[in-house]
Write a structure and sequence with these properties.
heterodimer, A: 2 strands, B: alpha/beta, 6-stranded mixed beta sheet, 31% helix
Chain lengths: 249, 322
Amino acid sequence: MTVWRLEIARLWRTRRLVALLGVFLVLGFGEPVLTYYLPQLVNGETNGIKIVIPPATPAQALKGFSQNAAQLGILVVVIVAAASVALDARPALASFYRTRIRCPSLLILPRATAVAVASVVGLVLGSAAAWYETRVLIGYLSPARLAAGCGLEALWLVFSVVVVTTWATLVRSVLAVAGWSLATLLVLALLDSITAVAPWAPTALASGIQDLLPGGGGVPWRAVAVTAAATALLLAVATRLARSRRSDR
Amino acid sequence: MLGGVPLGGDGVPNNGEIALSASVVTVGLSKAYGSAQALTRVNLEVPTGALYGLIGPNGAGKTTLLEILAGLRLPTSGEVHLAAQRAAIGYCPDVAEFEPWLTATEVIDLSLSLLGQESTREAVATVLDLVGLGKSAHRRVGGFSRGMTTRLNLGAALVAQPQILLLDEPVASLDPLGRADILDLLASLAGQTTVIVSSHDLSGVEELCTDIGVLVGGRLLFQGRTADLLASVRGDRWLVEVRPPATTVLAMLSAAPWVSQVKETAPGRIELHAPTADQVESHLSRLLADAGARVVALSPVRPSLDEAFLALTAAPRDEGRS
């Protein structure tokens, strides 16, 4: 059993794959339905106040999916990634691996890759579901724009998994890894409020689908470059830290 | 010549080699956790192919020492010389854990794969049979008892045919039958594999190990042949068992000038101490005949490892001796 087969088995047998695919698929199928029926649910008159919501548009439905994927989706991805890459969370299990493998990064990288790939597959399936549901219920939108936006959000997911991987080489427990990772992503999200920094921040990719919808801001190339570079840098750091770590460090 | 993976105190490979017929040598090995000293200048020397018992009370530093040898911890100072590459060193922690969603077969297979060795179904099945898990080969290990996990732990180490095997409390969680099986299995490794066993089960260590190290408070108080440690305890005790009442025999033994101490530990069961074995052998049978005792059993009492350990640890010394 190679480490790659081990990671596929981990995703499948621990139901982590179900969690990763499930969250994006539920959002993908659910958000267009909610957007479609929202005017009917909300429109009306209560205590003399009349609420009027305009009819749903395809862009609204996909924007809703993108927003929820960036919040709920990333939360699930971080928790699943932390549970997978926190190699030293269980010392007895860690000793089984550490006494057999030359370099811990040979274990951690397949784990991170498996979670990242499963997350991206989940995002793609969820986006496809959202597009299909939107087309059936609301109207047509170019799938090319959605695919490009999906690519940006996929890069954001991969970056998030690498942030988790880096934290896993610094702290031990799953809770600590997940907590510090979420805190890091939250701090990055705060950078969005600084006008000068926002175009460069990786969090700009979290709304990739929204940016490429009609009326969006287009491809945030500066954020793409920064995120790609930061992902590579963090991977190198994680690899180095994993190699030098011992049980008592 | 020892090659292997010598480590300096800073964890940097040490190029120095030591010419010894030992597989594991530590030189002045010390380990501190903050202000707590876990190991102090430990000079371990484990002969190649030996079954080496590492005994000591809780907190003596046994696990720390094994973890340093396994490469899981770095020493604060001192050197470790191992006559094997890292991949040829098996380590079984006292509490083993595996991915609960893997089967026993997959764990053994994974163990080989992680070490970069080819795995065959036959090899995996043979090892599982060897450790008594043949019937549970395809069960997920999450449902294993602690004893079964311990057996799997040993199997995962043995499958790679290690040159050095480090075992931390290998029989602690096993039932008597399982304990006997594992001790037999380890005994069968003598001469082929250098085995270091850390254990509180002194009778098991006495039964199994040819060599022994006594670690107390992070210091190696004794190191050498098990027989030498046992011989260091005065062996002048004899057990006499007669049909009760033993009043006459007791009175005569108490009066005998060659008996230093005598007591009845149970009805008819008498334990006596004598300064020399010669005097007991010369006078005891005649005394029993004179007392008209009906002798059931008569034997010298061999000191156990428990007694040797207690005698040794009662007066700890600073340095280990060979």
